[in-house]
Design a protein that fits this description.
By secondary structure, the protein is mostly helical. Helix content is 58%, strand content 6%.
Length: 738
């Protein structure tokens, strides 16, 4: 029961940080799960996801698109989901064909579109299917805390959500059928897979596999003509045929060659034929699976780039993630990269990856990225490559830190190194700390960039910049805390711990242990959390950091509380409440006293709970911690309820609700509503109680799932109230939660 005990225990976020509360959920929770019968009728589901990349014009592929659509029609008639795999050489147009087909059928699939690049050709290796299905679940409206940690459970939930939904899924650049299978939806959905391999194993799953051959000569000439759009193909038809022959009918090669010609309107096609012939001959001995035809075109296109664009092309090949925005290019180049980006895009060396936060995103075709990386190895010194990689890493760290400041301004207490160059703003908002809109924009930026942030973190140690690794893990803390990316939370802090150890920075080691331990606690692994907290405590003792050691008392108390050891937990909380103010951290001491009150409440020691909760509240209010002040009000209200003092209980609970509800702190809001419902029951007002319970049920279902223990407890209370019929209407006037 992650939500109940743990979310009641808020404390400093890391060894040197501010308060955190590992069960709380911030920011714009929408009621995505199917509400129980008692749920408020206004609860609505999410908007359908529309994730497919833009479609581009294709030539000579009408037969393949018709085949795919015919397979879909048959599967639909037979009541089966549609699964189609498109295979072929790199650059043959697999993604373009699949997108062209899927975009045409969009009107028939109102459930939305999901897209994932499975990274078979990525330097970092294929993407783990568990990561992808987690993203899909969130896109389908599953709140992050409800995304199961285990792959099998994620897949089961994914299939349940798609069973009655008409949805399109595109799985691009798959490595194996085994990677694809967990990502196949249920029901009358359509899945398109692209891969260089034929993936015959998908036939077992009802898949229809088509293999794309290179374009025929006339279709390739038509593609060249549409790329140039200036009449040169009609004027030089034989030269055009010779050019597309040299491109071996691969659309990527034709587009790249055409883009280069388009940039040189006074050049005849013959000039390109001559140059490409020479380049083709040079690469012939190195040919593998036909890629030399694309590589020849890439070499020529690269050679025609202005110096600045060529430099950017090489350095962007070092980017460890799959896509990037303009600010990353600015950081890599150390200056405004807009013009160079336009040159690369016009030369078909970059692909439009859509928009995020109103800004353009780009990505490389896998062959183009490999080419850019090879050019970087050939033309950039090891020092310049290392410096560019550092600029990329520092860019992400600086902007993650900016996001952290907007979301949780008290969290960062340790120095961050952003490198020697100026910081390039990622452009996710100009708000200030405490501004909820700015905080939401910053959280959205962190979530969108999470794959890139993790990619940078993974290469930090191998690249010789381990401090970047642990600092980036620390900067991502608000995202992990509020949106519960558990797998990344665990991986980031494990890698961050190794990085801190490599730096020999004991304070950073403790930071990673405590932040990582709180993640383990949130993932219901209190034993592992306790091991990490105790290691940090030992380190603080060795280094004489009495404040750090006192803070670990709170963490260790939480672990023992979760392990069902309230006596040990209370002892540790009591020590922390006594020691922390003397060590200079009154706020953390107040949080320890709050935790002590929580233990007293669970034991029915209501007078003790009131005393400690109100003492904690006064200090937290003085410290400006409105969230935890409200939680202390709510806890005191529940304690007064136990004493039968309904007026004081209602006052505390309503004060808490007034603060918590606008913050979208849904779990704590639900707990306050449950307390108000009990107050209404105690006053003989079942209608008011029922309204509070219903709203609480919607919130608990959104945070922990309809089947959570908290949600079930509320259902039981509603059931015990009996039917609404016959209630005294005058007693129920008003809004109990208002």
């Amino acid at each position: 029961m992650l939500g109940h005990e743990h979310s009641d225990n808020d404390l400093s976020g890391t060894v040197h940080g501010p308060a955190i509360q590992s069960g709380k959920v911030y920011g714009g929770i929408h009621f995505h799960t199917e509400a129980a019968p008692e749920a408020a009728p206004e609860a609505r589901g999410p908007k359908p996801p529309w994730q497919l990349p833009p479609s581009i014009r294709i030539t000579g592929r009408s037969a393949e698109v018709s085949t795919l659509e015919g397979h879909r029609a048959r599967a639909t008639r037979e009541g089966h989901p549609t699964l189609a795999a498109v295979s072929g050489l790199g650059g043959v147009g697999k993604t373009a064909v699949a997108l062209a087909w899927l975009h045409t059928i969009r009107p028939h699939f109102p459930g939305g579109q999901l897209y994932a690049d499975l990274g078979a050709q990525s330097p970092g290796g294929p993407v783990d299917p568990g990561e992808v299905v987690g993203r899909f679940l969130r896109a389908l409206g599953v709140p992050t805390p409800q995304v199961p940690p285990v792959l099998a459970e994620r897949v089961a939930l994914y299939r349940s959500l798609t069973a009655d939904r008409r949805l399109v899924v595109m799985l691009d650049d798959a490595a194996t059928a085994a990677q694809v299978r967990p990502l196949l939806p249920a029901g009358q959905c359509v899945t398109a897979v692209t891969s260089r391999r034929r993936l015959p194993g998908l036939s077992v799953d009802g898949g229809h596999v088509i293999h794309l051959e290179p374009l025929g000569r006339e279709a390739a000439v038509e593609l060249l003509d549409s790329t140039l759009a200036d009449g040169r193909v009609a004027e030089q038809p034989e030269e055009a045929r010779a050019l597309v022959d040299l491109c071996a009918g691969l659309p990527l090669a034709v587009r790249i060659a055409g883009a280069r010609l388009a940039a040189r309107p006074r050049h005849g096609i013959t000039t390109m034929v001559r140059a490409l012939t020479e380049e083709h001959d040079r690469l012939e001995a190195l040919a593998i699976d036909g890629d030399h035809d694309v590589r020849a075109a890439l070499d020529l296109s690269y050679q025609g780039l202005p110096a600045g664009a060529a430099h950017l092309y090489r350095l962007l090949g070092l980017h460890p993630g799959r896509e990037f925005g303009g600010p990353v290019a600015d950081a890599v180049l150390g200056s405004d990269a807009a013009d160079a980006l336009d040159v690369l895009y016009d030369a078909s060396l970059l692909i439009d990856a859509g928009q995020a936060a109103g800004a353009e995103r780009y990505r490389f075709h896998d062959l183009v990225r490999l080419h850019a990386l090879a050019q970087a190895d050939r033309h950039e010194s090891p020092e310049e490559r290392a410096a560019a990689l550092r600029r990329i890493g520092y860019h992400y760290l600086a902007n993650a830190t900016r996001a952290e400041e907007l979301i949780d301004p008290q969290h960062r207490t340790m120095a961050r190194d952003f490198g020697p160059g100026p910081v390039v703003d990622a452009g996710f908002g100009d708000g200030r700390a405490g501004d909820e809109e700015a905080a939401d924009a910053a959280l959205d930026w962190l979530e969108h960039e999470l794959p890139n942030l993790m990619a940078v973190l993974r290469i930090a140690r191998p690249a010789g910049i381990p401090a970047l690794g642990w600092q980036l893990a620390d900067a991502m803390w608000p995202l992990f805390l509020r949106r519960k990316f558990y797998e990344e939370w665990r991986e980031a802090h494990r890698e961050g711990l190794l990085a801190a150890e490599e730096c020999g920075d004991e304070a950073a080691v403790c930071r990673m242990l405590t932040s990582g331990g709180l993640g383990e606690l949130d993932m219901d692994c209190p034993e592992q959390a306790l091991v990490m907290f105790e290691r940090a405590a030992d380190s603080f003792l060795r280094t004489g950091d009495t404040l750090g050691h006192a803070r670990t008392l709170n963490y260790r108390g939480l672990a023992h509380q979760r392990l069902g050891e309230p006596d040990r937990a209370a002892g540790l909380f009591g020590r922390a409440a006594a020691e922390l103010p003397d060590r200079g951290d009154r706020r953390a001491g107040a949080l320890a006293r709050f935790n002590l009150a929580d233990v007293a409440l669970s034991r029915g020691l209501y007078e003790d709970a009131v005393r400690d909760a109100e003492a904690a509240r006064d200090v937290l209010r003085e410290a400006g911690d409105t969230y935890n002040t409200a939680r202390a009000d709510a806890l005191a209200g529940r304690a007064y309820l136990g004493l039968g003092r309904l007026d004081l209980a209602e006052a505390g609970l309503r004060a808490a609700l007034d603060t918590l509800r606008p913050m979208s702190a849904d779990h704590e809001t639900a707990r306050a509503l449950g307390g108000l419902a009990l107050v209404s029951e105690g006053r003989g007002q079942p209608g008011l109680a029922r309204r509070c319970y219903r709203e609480a049920l919607v919130l608990y279902s959104a945070v922990g799932g309809p089947g959570s223990a908290d949600a079930q407890e509320v259902r039981d209370r509603l059931g015990a109230l009996g039917p609404e019929a016959g209630e005294n209407g005058t007693a129920d006037d008003g809004d109990a939660a208002g």
